Amino acid sequence: MQPDLIRKHAAPVPRYTSYPTAPHFHAGINAGTYREWLGAIAPGTALSLYAHIPFCDRLCWFCACNTKQTRRYQPLADYLTYLYREIATVAGAVDGRVEVGALHFGGGSPTMLAPDDMRALNDVLRSAFKFRPDAEISVEIDPNDMDEARFDALAEIGMTRVSLGVQDFDPRVQQAINREQTFDQTRAVVDGARMRGVSSVNIDLLYGLPHQTRESVEATVEQALLLNPDRIALFGYAHVPWMRKHQTMIDEAALPDALERFSQSSRAAEILLSCGYQAIGIDHFARPDETMAIAHREGRLRRNFQGYTVDDLDTLIGLGASAIGKLPQGYVQNNTATSEYQRLVSETGLGVTKGFALSEEDRMRAWVIERLMCDFSFSKSEFARCFGAQGTPVIEIAEKLLQEDEDGLIASSGDRFVVTSRGRPVVRSVVAAFDAYFGTNGARHSIAV
Predict the structure, then answer these.
(1) What residue ranges of the chain have pLDDT lower than 70?
(2) Is 252 exposed, middle or buried, given 0-12, 13-18 or 19+ CB atoms closer than 10 A?
(3) Cβ–Cβ < 8 Å for 99, 132
């Protein structure tokens, strides 16, 4: 892309890990609604669980997650009491009719949990729900938390996949984002996980951070490759200080502009592709024999609140403060404030305070958006088989985009609407045209590049 096109299409847009996106969730969906939706889950349904631990022992200034810093363990111990009650309430509502195909521990830093509490949380979940024998157990790891006892506890609970936040190995960048972490620390965690039978290691990297350059990003990518990760997630830093006040600690004058961000991501992608990794969507890379790469080639890649995933289960139960769930009827989200979540759970057993009930039009647009984000294309005939004549207005949007495109971002190939190689870096801007809610409530987003 030429610089003028990068600037033109770098306007802020959502990341589309859901549709409608979370800023459009509303209080009309409450705990009572959630109980009804849980009670309607069909017997034999396989689902995913997400358990959120919203605590860190240090606050990284780049982070946009719902988390809080604490140097005391008691808040975590107290939090688990409420999390256990929510688990029991949800399990009671589905009444043994479901089985779990995947469990993801996220944060915050779930590895802040003491080893015995990791085991206890796992025991509570497995007592409440029936797990498939091959259920994937994935854990987000902060290398600064890890010791042998935690590794052993994670192995005991059946951990199969780990994700490590690296962001950047450059000391100057690390200092600017309050995330100091050496290469040796990271390597020790990768080795420790693999020694305990973990089948897949993912490393998260960021571009667009303060003081980053193409050269520093290149150096970080090359160091990360020394760890032989199965996947690499290459995210653009989302500077949203109006949402996350701690991001005001970052010197905005040190942030790269849209052109530099584009150059950083392009150079990193070039290196990863030259080393045999397969590009997946807008920000993931995987070895060709890795499950995500296989799913991508077979058209089975999905996208949810954790980003790209091979999880093909349509029901996701979110547990813990701020956790989001997706059921056939729509989305639910727990209160983001830990104290308020705990109060709600103590009163009702559930922490839901908002959500979104999906209409058929929402489902149609969500289908198109997910396919474009995952495959950079969608089949009009497949769309018609799924939604019939009622999908005509969505197809008309695609046809109008094709007629008005002046920049070569999209094309028609047979019955497929295709985002071209030129358009892929700004696919979020293309996708926004299918978003009926975009720009309707004043929500602010990070830039598209």
Answers:
(1) 1, 448
(2) exposed
(3) yes
